[in-house]
Design brief:
Largest sheet: 9 strands, mixed
Structural class: alpha/beta
Helix content: 25-40%
Number of helices: 12
Shape: globular
Distance between the termini: 34 Å
Strand content: 15-25%
């Protein structure tokens, strides 16, 4: 079957349906799942893509990706980011409002981003807006235009065009978001009084780690939980790296806060003790912490305290990583991993008692719920988009530069052997990736999200068409 071809049916002995792995044939019509047949030997009138015993699951929904277009396309861009996504079984990404120039903080800037992304996306793409000081009047127009929600920073963002918010900015934003059904995402680190001078060797990872202690996340999350309980606006903590604030999050949820939290593949796969001197490709904010903390994150994931896992793909040009000096304090903070999220997660999760249905829950279903795409993405069921990842969970492979589709190949995972090879990716019934090759035509579309409070009306309207 040629790349770009419309797939009418997929057969496998291992299809994940209703949390159960079983033989099935998925019938696809008009880009949607039409039927799931359990009789795999029966006659099917259309051409069938038989993938043997490869696992067929819903495509991954990665709701934390920095594409950086327009403005910083030397870092990444929609063409390369979405090709990498397709090669990794990711069928939907949600683009962060920074580090593009301009950032997605006004209706006009959103329009510019949509123009730039047109004709460049190999997977479906939704968009987060941003909350910065003084833009609260832009939030409702951006909701009406279809953003998935908003992100803000409680500390310097790393780029001057996306300033962090104060308490008064947060209250103004929350008042605008009340009643909209939208969600506010928080980079939850906050400056706290440092008692010691930063006098360590900047090439040692421990020096950087000491400069971003757990208390910065704890105090920021205390602010988030208070706001969430006060306004009852959906709130979400991005890239949780410290396990210490989990108790605060649990208490707020038990008190009725509509609060969710994600962690990332790097916090689950890497640990501070293993980061060599000068290896600035491991730098990100908040930082990768110690191995004991990492195991606590895995425990929280298993117990449901952490809702989902994302890439937080945040690339840059190699010079910004300061590899020549190895200075962690001066290097850009961000890790590239969009293409490798599924095998990164599975390589560790499979050894910790996680099952394939857990992978779907944490990498597809919960992420699609966060951005209000759960009525079309993240589940294999009739009526849902025919977004499929076909992969071999037992097969191992080594990450090398030649296989990486991100624009910049620098990643802490170079040379690492992972478990779980993506064989093919199907986007709304079209074969967009297979065994190392990508479709030449970008078949992704923009996902503009109707307001939650109006979604039933939209559904009813569509039924009348």
């Amino acid at each position: 079957m040629e790349l770009g071809a419309t797939v009418a049916a997929v057969r496998s002995t291992r299809v994940l349906v209703d949390n159960e792995v079983r033989p099935a044939v998925i019938i696809i019509k008009d880009g949607k799942i039409h039927q799931i047949l359990s009789d795999v030997s029966g006659d099917v009138t259309c051409e069938v893509l038989d993938v043997g015993d490869s696992v067929v699951m819903p495509g991954i929904v990665d709701c934390h990706v920095h594409v950086n277009e327009p403005g910083r396309t030397s870092w990444e861009g929609f063409w390369t980011a979405t090709r990498a996504a397709a090669a990794g079984g990711v069928t939907t990404i949600v683009d962060m409002p920074l580090n593009s120039i301009p950032p997605t903080t006004t209706l006009g800037n959103l329009s510019e981003k949509l123009r730039e992304a047109t004709g460049k996306c190999f997977v479906d793409t939704a968009f987060w807006g941003g909350v910065i000081p003084g833009n609260q009047r832009e939030l409702r127009p951006m909701i009406q235009a279809g953003v998935a929600g908003f992100k803000c920073f409680l500390i310097h963002s790393g780029v001057d065009e996306f300033p962090h918010v104060t308490d008064s900015d947060l209250h103004a934003a929350m008042k605008q978001l009340q009643g909209t059904g939208s969600v506010l995402l928080f980079h939850a680190e906050m400056d706290v009084q440092q008692t010691a001078e930063d006098t360590g060797d900047p090439c040692q990872y421990s020096t950087f780690l000491q400069s971003r202690p757990d208390v910065m996340e704890i105090e920021a999350i205390r602010t988030v939980t208070d706001l969430c309980l006060q306004y009852h606006v959906r709130c979400h903590i991005v890239h949780l790296s410290s396990a210490k604030p989990l108790k605060l999050i649990q208490e707020a949820r038990q008190a009725g806060a509509p609060l969710t939290v994600e962690t990332t593949h790097h916090y689950l796969s890497l640990c501070a003790e293993d980061i060599p001197a000068g290896a600035t490709q491991f730098k990100c904010c908040p930082p990768i912490r110690g191995s004991i903390n990492r195991e606590q994150l895995w425990s929280a994931l298993k117990s449901g305290q952490i809702d989902m896992v994302v890439s937080d793909h945040s690339p840059c040009t190699p010079d910004l990583k300061k590899l020549d000096s190895g200075d962690f304090t001066q290097a850009w903070g961000g890790i590239s991993s969009l293409q490798f999220g599924l095998p990164l997660f599975w390589s560790s999760a499979s050894k910790k008692g996680f099952q394939l249905h857990d992978v779907v829950r944490l990498l597809s279903r919960k992420t699609s719920q966060l951005c209000s795409l759960d009525n079309q993405k993240g589940i294999l069921a009739p009526g849902y988009d025919a977004d499929l990842v076909i992969w071999d969970p037992e097969r191992e492979f080594e990450i090398n530069e030649a296989s990486i589709h991100h624009k910049n190949k620098l990643t802490p995972y170079l040379g690492v052997t992972l478990r779980g090879l993506v064989r093919a990716t199907i986007l709304r019934g079209r074969l967009v990736y297979r065994d190392g090759s990508l479709c030449s035509e970008p078949l992704g579309k923009h996902l503009l999200i109707p307001q939650r409070k109006n979604q039933e009306a939209v559904k009813n309207k569509n039924m009348l068409k």
